[in-house]
Amino acid sequence: MSSPRILLVLVSLILLQANLLALVQSQSSCLNNGNYTSNSTYKANLDAVLSSLSTNVGSNGFYNASVGQNPDRANAIVVCRGDVQLDTCRGCLQNATTELLASCPNQKQAINWQDSCMLRFSNETLVGILATGPTWYLWNMGNATSPDQFKQDLRTLLDNLRGQAAYGGSLRKVAAGNISAPDFQTIFALVQCSPDLSPDDCSNCLIDAAEEIPRCCDGKKGGRVLKPSCTLRFESYPFYNATRLQELALQPPVLSPPGPGEHGGNTTQTVKDGGNSKTTTVIIIVVVVSVVASVILAVAVGIFLRKRRKQKPMENSETVDDISSPESLQFAFGTIRDATNDFSDNNKLGQGGFGSVYKGKLSNGQEIAVKRLSRNSGQGDLEFKTEVLLLARLQHRNLVRLLGFSIEGEEKVLVYEFVQNASLDLFIFDPIKHSYLDWERRYKIIGGIARGILYLHEDSRLRIIHRDLKASNVLLDGDMNPKIADFGMARLFGHDETQGNTSRIVGTYGYMAPEYAMHGQFSVKSDVFSFGVLVLEIISGQKNNFFRNGENVEDLLSFAWKNWSEGTTANVVDPFLRSSPGSMREILRCIHIGLLCVQENASDRPTMASVALMLSSFSLTLGVPSQPAFYEPSSYDIDVSLPQENNSRDYEHNSTQSDHSSKNDASITEFHPR
């Protein structure tokens, strides 16, 4: 090829790359939340608020403002990428403003992502409101080598960065770092939240963003997930300005001056993912890397790899305050009594061995669930403090949140968030309500439970073994998201501890791992066993110890194993789900995963980290399960006395109930319809 032709090709490739980069650096979404006219009051307010953004944004890269009064108030939020300089931030916002008005000329609500900034405007309050949709994806065309290990290392890195970002303060919530990956690779990542979010909302947003990675970037060595309230990006090369981030970390926070008419607002509305977007809410952009860019990148990576040093993964940086004084969570008993109308029977949600659960409403209108421990329940100070101290420290969207407690004389109550849809068992085992849970919802519930248990096992400050995971201890919120509840039987471990023994075996028949039920040995694999049973219950719609097969009643694990071995696994599936043949491959894979979790030998069961990976990656080949432990129904008490207690952290208690449900039934998960 002649030199002029080569030069022409190179110029064309460079121009193509420039156009593609421009595409990548600007994405707009117009939300169908009403239109405005060119001479309207809202248009004038919007122009005023947008004109203030680039000049008033401070060095922290965050600014919010509003102009006007409802219903014509215009609100805006800007967040610049945490590692960019102020002049870059301001220039980015000017471009975003121009492009957003051009892309969404009449919409009252819209969002634009640039490479260095994000701009949102709306006629609704934006400050402090978590918005996880619409979502945009971008990914690197290159594939990661050793993809399974790459994904595990990426998850570790993102989990570490999530904690740093969530607790980064009210003006800056950003974190970046890297981790050694297989085959001489290094993964670089940056996560960022809008700093007006609470730590919980920031963490939940980044969890949602990480969950999108398998959908857009599975097996890729780079990708981005862009949401209104948070973003994440990972690459196999250093794409962020680490020096700038270090400089900002050392600077004292600087407050931005108030904008015109700026004021806060109270609202509970959240922008729903995939809600009313005028354009497609999830847009996939394939970034074609030109030959020139590939050569440059290869050279840069080669130089970097020669200089690369081994680096240990960062330790989990969760910074939930240590609660040495539970009084900070204490409610006045009179407040709780008033909230429940003096524990009125009309407010009772459930009754169990430890007491009753009531719905209440605080004076500010917040709904709560109150667990009132019975005075002769047998749950003493140890069990009570276990739930208080554990739940106060746990921060995860798939765990029920403890709001506080109250003590007065012999009265002890725990105050939780109220979860609208009660417990999972009231849906999957109900002949009518089970039809509310299609496969998409059931799969979402399975994944959420897996993430909650994974957090307890690996990502919380202490390793926590739940020991009573079951359908009635999983609550469902208004969007059918699962929340694991009832930590009265939980056991605490240091991260270097993996198992323990107990002489008091408590829990729920059918969910207990055989080594625990027979010998009092428990570990993270005990929870894995319970999770496997729960997966099979969710898919079959029947209880583990009362599986009805025609006129016969048998053990669910036995039935699932027999059908899997004979190649008739579909017999295990709830008939309601069989009407969706397109989902059957995913359903059968989940049964396979459930059988791997209930294997008799604890060492054969996967960890929850492996389970989460199996659920999110269909490219991962599953192992062959061995025969599970089979149980025979029994009505006698399961409290077994063993010679000695080998673990000093003893939080369990005896139970004398003999039903086939929970042995600590006074959980807030024991809801019953009135």
TrEMBL record:
SUPFAM superfamilies: Protein kinase-like (PK-like). Residues 1-26 form the signal peptide. The keyword Acyltransferase does not apply. Pfam families: PK_Tyr_Ser-Thr, Stress-antifung. Residues 24-126, 132-239 form the Gnk2-homologous domain. Residues 654-667 have a biased composition (Polar residues). GO terms for cellular component: plasma membrane. Residues 641-674 are annotated as: Disordered. It comes from the Eukaryota. Keywords: ATP-binding, Glycoprotein, Kinase, Membrane, Nucleotide-binding, Phosphoprotein, Receptor, Repeat, Serine/threonine-protein kinase, Signal, Transferase, Transmembrane, Transmembrane helix. GO terms for biological process: response to oxidative stress. ATP binds at K371. The chain crosses the membrane at residues 282-305. Residues 343-630 form the Protein kinase domain. It is a single-pass membrane protein. InterPro entries: GNK2 (IPR002902), GNK2_sf (IPR038408), Kinase-like_dom_sf (IPR011009), Prot_kinase_dom (IPR000719), Protein_kinase_ATP_BS (IPR017441), Ser-Thr/Tyr_kinase_cat_dom (IPR001245), Ser/Thr_kinase_AS (IPR008271). It is found in: Membrane. It catalyses: L-threonyl-[protein] + ATP = O-phospho-L-threonyl-[protein] + ADP + H(+); L-seryl-[protein] + ATP = O-phospho-L-seryl-[protein] + ADP + H(+). CDD domains: Gnk2-like (cd23509), STKc_IRAK (cd14066). One of its GO terms (molecular function) is protein serine/threonine kinase activity. Its main location: membrane. PANTHER family: CYSTEINE-RICH RECEPTOR-LIKE PROTEIN KINASE 27-RELATED, RECEPTOR-LIKE SERINE/THREONINE-PROTEIN KINASE SD1-8. This is Cysteine-rich receptor-like protein kinase.
